């Protein structure tokens, strides 16, 4: 097995172990199906866990999920193999799932006979699914998921049979083997989960518009194929309605809102001269795994698999929020199909997408922090913080967008820029933080600021920064000194917080602003601020050469080491008071751990 595949398989096992820690009653096969549901079907892990069937009498239905929003029924049969691509799936198992479409959508007598020997819960789920398919026109998706391998002919036969025998219901079957799952794993680790399985992009035609075909380009050397065509704005808007924000998972930013100059300009054009929107706008760029031009009901569509809008999110979101009933606009669309091969081309795919993103997203200025949005480390931090109840904002977006994403399920909201400032102030020279946040995402500092994804590294620093900032609020001179004071207080607390139990206790108590911790902590911080005032007056210079507080704290490297020396040369009474306050902090943390 190639090294890349072996590493991916180990990553998958690690993901399944992590799921096992939260769902200890699930066997490995069921965890594998749960992971697939979370990675490919739904972002609601609780709904995915509730969909697991896997029991005697499950009739080959390892999971059944009914999604009200998309009006779809998802049925999964999973085969968790010990090695990727080794075991070959037999025809009987694959065709058994394919035949489920004719049973769910077929005669009542056939359905009753099938469910008569089924587990009662599975029978109830299948009955509910059948009702949705026949009475409410839900779509049926059948997924045969295996770490083994499945021949191309068998895959095509099963997928065709499921669609052909669905008795009028909209049905599609997909067989995902080991190689395909490794690509899915990469997307999952890259934060593209669940992806958008397929979309139909309807090409513009009629309404007085003449379109002389589609520009199609194929590069034989790279095997990259591209299409360029135009779409009507209301068809673009439907993409957001059906897929939501997961259509933009690979984009480096979120929606910036309607108050940016560029987005206001787009809205004005749509309202006053929509017929000219095509000429003023740069259009939308979509990357996908595969694409095929088809004709359906007299319209030409490009059917794309696993699509991602990597440029044009602002355009798409503005169109989605605009009324298109009177005069729809036209939009230029470029689709790039990049082949995915987990053995040889995964890194090339990631690199190419990153370059396309950086090369095409220029209408709204790209910041250094934007370029690190989809870095694997940022995605890992997001996942780890999510487990602690934090919504981690790794993408720049409007406040309204962030609040909508936060909803009521997240207790805390924190951005990657805030974490960067907290870590840089505590662990590096605080002048780094005083100089702004964007340079902290540059190549020379990024790995120092974000060395790992451990939330116990970031959260205590973040909550200490929040407390120091609170103490400085309303006092301009303290505001200039806050990064220096944060560095000093962390320096004195670091040995206390080295124990993980105290680290977690500190975070837990700061989250609730518990007075037993906040009182001695605030007194210690204010003592450090008063010492910083004395330090400034002693070292600012005299006369015309005297530095104002802003320049004094901003420009000089190594100031934090000078401040520590200044403190050590101060009165023993101040040191005894600080030591006593920090001892009280440690005592509170130990007591919380003992009670906890």
Description:
Helix 18 (416-427) packs across helix 22, helix 21 runs antiparallel to helix 22 (476-493) and helix 22 crosses helix 24 (515-539). This protein is 52% helix and 14% strand. The protein is built from 27 helices and 14 strands. The chain has 3 domains: 3-189, Restriction Endonuclease; 198-366, no CATH class; 377-595, no CATH class. It starts with a helix and ends with a helix. The strands form 4 sheets. The protein has a 5-stranded mixed β-sheet. It has a 4-stranded mixed β-sheet with strand order 1-2-3-4, sandwiched between helices. By secondary structure, the protein is α/β, with parallel strands linked by helices.
The main β sheet shows up as: 5 strands, mixed
Q: Which range best describes the helical content: under 10%, 10-25%, 25-40%, 40-55%, 55-70% or over 70%?
A: 40-55%
Q: Name the average pLDDT.
A: 88
Compute the gyration radius: what is it? 29 Å
Distance between the termini: 46 Å
Strand segment tally? 14
Task: Name the structural class.
Answer: alpha/beta
In terms of per-residue confidence, which ranges show pLDDT below 50 for 5 or more consecutive residues? none
Instruction: Tally the helices.
Output: 27
Give, in spatial order, the strands making up the sheet with the most strands. 6-7-12-8-11
Q: How many domain regions?
A: 3
Task: Tell me the β content.
Answer: 5-15%
Which term fits the overall shape?
A: globular
């Amino acid at each position: 097995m190639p090294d890349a595949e072996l590493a991916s398989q180990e990553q998958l096992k690690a993901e399944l172990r992590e799921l096992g820690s939260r769902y200890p009653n699930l066997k490995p096969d069921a965890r594998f199906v749960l992971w697939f549901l979370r990675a490919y079907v739904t972002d609601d892990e609780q709904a995915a866990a509730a969909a697991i069937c896997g029991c005697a009498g499950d009739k080959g239905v390892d999971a059944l999920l009914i999604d009200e929003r998309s009006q779809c029924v998802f049925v999964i049969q999973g085969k968790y193999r010990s090695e990727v691509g080794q075991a070959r799936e037999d025809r009987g198992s694959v065709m058994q799932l394919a035949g489920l479409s004719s049973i769910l959508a077929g005669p009542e007598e056939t359905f009753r006979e099938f469910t008569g020997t089924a587990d009662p819960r599975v029978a109830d789920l299948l009955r509910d699914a059948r009702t949705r398919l026949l009475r409410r026109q839900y779509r049926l998706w059948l997924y045969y998921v295996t770490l083994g391998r499945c021949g191309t002919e068998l895959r095509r036969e099963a997928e065709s049979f499921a669609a052909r025998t669905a008795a009028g219901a909209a049905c599609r079957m997909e067989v995902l083997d080991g190689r395909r799952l490794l690509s899915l794993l990469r997307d999952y680790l890259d934060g593209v989960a669940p992806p958008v399985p397929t979309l139909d992009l309807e090409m513009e035609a009629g309404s007085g518009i003449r379109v002389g075909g589609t520009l199609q380009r194929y590069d034989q050397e790279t095997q990259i194929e591209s299409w360029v065509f135009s779409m009507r704005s209301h068809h673009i808007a439907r993409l957001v309605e059906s897929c939501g924000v997961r259509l933009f998972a690979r984009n480096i930013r979120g929606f910036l809102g309607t108050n940016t100059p560029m987005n206001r300009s787009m809205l004005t054009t749509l309202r006053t001269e929509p017929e000219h929107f095509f000429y003023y706008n740069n259009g939308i760029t979509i990357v996908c795994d595969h694409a095929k031009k088809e004709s359906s009901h007299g319209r030409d569509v490009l059917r794309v698999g696993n699509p991602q809008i990597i440029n044009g999110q602002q355009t798409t979101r503005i169109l989605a929020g605009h009324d298109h009933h009177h005069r729809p606009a036209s939009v230029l669309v470029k689709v790039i199909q990049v082949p995915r091969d987990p053995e040889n081309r995964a890194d090339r795919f990631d690199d190419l997408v990153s370059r396309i993103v950086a090369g095409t997203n220029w209408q709204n200025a790209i910041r250094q922090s934007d370029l690190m949005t989809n870095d694997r480390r940022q995605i890992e931090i997001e996942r780890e913080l999510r487990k602690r109840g934090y919504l981690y904002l790794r993408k720049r977006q409007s406040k309204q967008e962030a609040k909508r994403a936060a909803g009521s399920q997240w207790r805390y909201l924190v951005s990657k820029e805030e974490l960067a400032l907290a870590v840089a102030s505590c662990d590096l020279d605080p002048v780094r933080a005083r100089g702004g946040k964007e340079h902290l995402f540059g190549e020379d500092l990024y790995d120092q600021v974000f060395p790992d994804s451990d939330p116990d590294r970031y959260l205590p620093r973040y909550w200490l920064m929040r407390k120091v900032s609170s103490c400085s609020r309303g006092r301009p001179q303290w505001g200039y000194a806050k990064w220096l004071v944060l560095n000093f207080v962390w320096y004195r607390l670091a040995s206390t917080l080295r124990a993980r139990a105290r680290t977690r206790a500190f975070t837990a108590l700061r989250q609730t602003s518990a007075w037993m911790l906040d009182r001695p902590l605030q007194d210690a911080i204010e003592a450090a601020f008063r010492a910083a005032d004395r330090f400034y007056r002693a070292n600012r210079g005299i006369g015309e050469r005297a530095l104002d507080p802003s320049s004094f704290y901003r420009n000089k490297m190594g100031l934090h080491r000078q401040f520590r020396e200044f403190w050590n040369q101060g009165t023993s009474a101040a040191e005894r008071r600080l030591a006593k306050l920090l001892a009280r902090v440690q005592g509170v943390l130990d007591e919380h751990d003992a009670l906890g």
